[in-house]
Amino acid sequence: MADAVMAPRVLCIAGTDPSGGAGLLADTKAVTALGGYAMGVVTAVTVQNTRGVYDVHAVPVDTVIAQLDAVADDVQIDAVKIGMLGEASLVEAVGEWLRRRRPPHVVLDPVMVATTGGRLATDDAARMLRDLVPVVELVTPNVPELGVLSGVDTAPDIEGIVGQAELVHEQTGSAVLATTGDLLDGSAEDVLVQSTGERRTTLRLPFVRVDTPHTHGTGCSLSSALATARVGAPDWEAAYRRVRPWMDGALHGGLSLDVGKGSGPLDHTWFLRR
Length: 274
Known about the structure:
Shape: globular
Largest sheet: 8 strands, mixed
Order of helices and strands: EHEEEHEHEHEHHEEEHH
Structural class: alpha/beta
Number of helices: 8
Helix content: 25-40%
Strand order of the largest sheet: 2-1-5-6-7-8-9-10
Distance between the termini: 26 Å
Radius of gyration: 17 Å
């Protein structure tokens, strides 16, 4: 028998989605699909489904940090994915926890607005997310989130996205993967900016756009998958190139899932039905 391969142990920090398409449930599905062992710390309980977000109940900051410490005191953490941090005090506390615990391979999905349109972060929290970026290894904003992080208006085209991604990388030192699935001109290129030593590289990564309304939880799933794939990979480009085919399959698979009446979820385990 071949030697068993150790599953990356990935800690996901996020809010819940009772419909299962986004947030912590999507995170754990993505980590599992990429071969990892998923753990989860709850930051908020949301009232939502595929049609919208109706209410958000924040978990007390002390309880969130207690959850994080309970895991870190017992389990070796190989990677961390951070999603919904709805309150400014929680953003600050999680940043302090990262500095204290120093886990490897931290990915930040700067969640501000849900795919279905619901607001998931206060204005103060959105501003403080900019201060959290230097503490993480990779940040994965969509086009509007990239504008907030760069302090510039939302980019109208791929050239603007490249400039803003490079600006955020220059200001923070964090690698940036800007996702362009919601770009109005229909561009289908993600933008990755990362540094190896003193050498910065900017990559435009083309993909085939999937024509689907079922994109609920795309950002959550991508960032969690990247955190998992980065364990053992030489850099973020290698992690992305492993994750992209899985993501494309999940988007295609979502077309045949019969879940909800709104923006439906991805099919995280599409490969099991082939």
